[in-house]
Design a protein that fits this description.
Layout: H1 18-33, E1 39-46, E2 49-60, E3 65-66, E4 73-74, H2 79-92, E5 113-118, E6 123-127, H3 134-139, H4 153-160, H5 173-181, H6 198-210, H7 214-226, E7 245-248, E8 253-256, H8 263-267, E9 282-283, H9 285-296, E10 300-301, E11 304-305, H10 309-315, H11 326-329, E12 342-344, E13 349-351, H12 354-357, E14 366-369, E15 375-379, E16 384-389, E17 392-393, H13 400-410
Parallel strand pairs: 7-17
Antiparallel strand pairs: 1-2, 1-16, 2-3, 4-9, 5-6, 7-8, 10-11, 12-13, 13-14, 14-15, 15-16
Length: 414
């Protein structure tokens, strides 16, 4: 049986120059050669047909195990678009309105308070002027944050509760959501954009509304219909799991997560204690390719439809306040891509202006990435999907994503 990512189409038939495509591998091979990355897998497709699929390096350097098509990758925040699609499936069924206050299902958010000033130990807060609504979770405008950002007193409050790169060993998704609900918001709901646990809370909302655990809902409603057989919150074949590495800022080279004191983060997917809808999934390139084709196909892949075409179009519109971009309304703390010329839709970043983005792209491109430097984008204009898989934390260590865009689009010559 051939790999589902085997290149079976002539790239020239789909508008690509094969010699120019080879520049992708030449460029990123240097990342492996000089120790910036242990290994990677890159996939480029147009109209659902794979024109380029290549691997380099190792999924586990110490064990001498090469990257293969079936390598399992920690998706981290690339989980977010999948959870967002799940929520939109429930929305299409009339389970809630995007404007509904989430306290209708999560009463712990009935009276959120907002940070005004002060330290993390003695904050001054005020009541939220409006409730957190479903669309706030989908757009990261709820005022929630992440402890690992180290940029705001509220971030420190998250860390004090055990939430930095991982979560406390005790507790599940429901108890974690209750903890976050008891902490101040960084800003008034709907007024700004900030990267945080919004999609994790959205995952809990899915559980309450559907009456199913998040892993069950995703497995039944998304993974099974799309044939994503190797995607889930638990790795069933750890020998295929890529090793997690951390960037050493002093050298620019990778080091093992265990050696860097972050072994707990690396081991989470072996026995997860909670279902992180914002960052808990493990997948393969072939599986995530199916998900990107769902977005490119406006909700349908090979006759399997999960969302209406207009819903995916709406997902890919800019939903930020005033139609502004992330540079204008986002807190420039941490994200999976630059802010200039980029808006945010319902669970995905959306390119508004490639000129301001300073990168080859199409207006309306949907994308996101993960903390271990994975990334994907879906270009509805050129009908291109691209994925990059590796396991290096943080994702800001190297300009992989912008370089990959330039290399893919320079090869498009139709």
């Amino acid at each position: 049986m051939s790999s589902p990512l085997k290149v079976e189409s002539d790239p020239e038939e789909l508008g690509f120059d094969p010699a120019r495509l080879s520049r992708i591998d030449d460029h990123f091979a240097r990342y492996v050669d000089d120790g910036r990355l242990a290994g990677w897998h890159i996939v480029v497709a147009r109209d659902g047909r794979v024109v380029h699929s290549s691997t380099a390096g190792h999924r586990d350097v110490d064990a001498g195990l090469a990257v293969t098509d079936d390598t399992r990758w920690r998706m981290y925040s690339q989980t977010k678009p999948i959870t967002s699609v799940a929520a939109l499936m429930l929305w299409e069924r009339g389970a809630f309105e995007l404007t509904d206050p989430i306290s209708r299902w999560l009463p712990e958010f009935a009276a959120p308070r907002v940070y005004v000033k002060g330290s993390s130990s003695k904050p001054l807060t005020e009541p939220a002027t409006e409730p957190i609504r479903v669309w706030h979770l989908l757009t990261h405008t709820a005022g929630l944050t992440y402890g690992f950002q180290h940029a705001h007193p509220v971030d420190a409050m998250y860390r004090a509760k055990g939430f930095e790169w991982s979560a406390p060993e005790q507790g599940d998704l429901a108890t974690h959501v209750e903890t976050w609900a008891g902490l101040p918001l960084v800003f008034q709901p709907g007024s700004e954009w900030n990267y945080g646990h919004s999609t994790d809370v959205l995952g809990r909302l899915i559980e309450v509304v559907s009456g199913k655990p998040l892993d069950t809902f995703l497995a039944e409603e998304i993974f099974a219909p799309l044939g994503m057989t190797a995607t889930g919150f638990v790795v069933d074949d750890p020998d295929r799991l890529a090793t997690l590495y951390l960037n050493n800022p002093a050298t620019g080279r990778y080091v093992g997560a265990e050696a860097a004191g972050m072994g707990a983060l690396a081991r989470e997917v072996l026995a997860p204690t909670w279902l992180g809808g914002g960052g808990g999934l493990v997948s393969t390139a072939a599986d995530y390719h199916r998900f990107t084709q769902l977005l490119l196909g406006r909700g349908e892949v090979d006759g399997v439809r999960l969302l209406g075409s207009r819903t995916v179009d709406y997902m890919g519109r800019n939903h930020l306040p005033g139609g502004l971009d992330l540079e204008q309304v986002g807190r420039p703390l941490f994200a999976e891509m630059p802010f200039d010329g980029v808006g945010f839709g319902l669970g995905v970043a959306v390119v508004l202006d490639p000129v301001r983005y300073r990168t080859l792209a199409s207006v309306g491109e949907m994308s996101w990435g993960g903390a271990a430097s994975t990334a994907f984008w879906v270009d509805p204009v050129e009908r291109i999907t691209t994925m990059f898989f590796t396991q290096l934390v943080p994702s800001s260590a190297h300009p992989i994503r912008t370089q990959l865009r330039g290399l893919v689009y320079q090869a498009l010559v139709d």
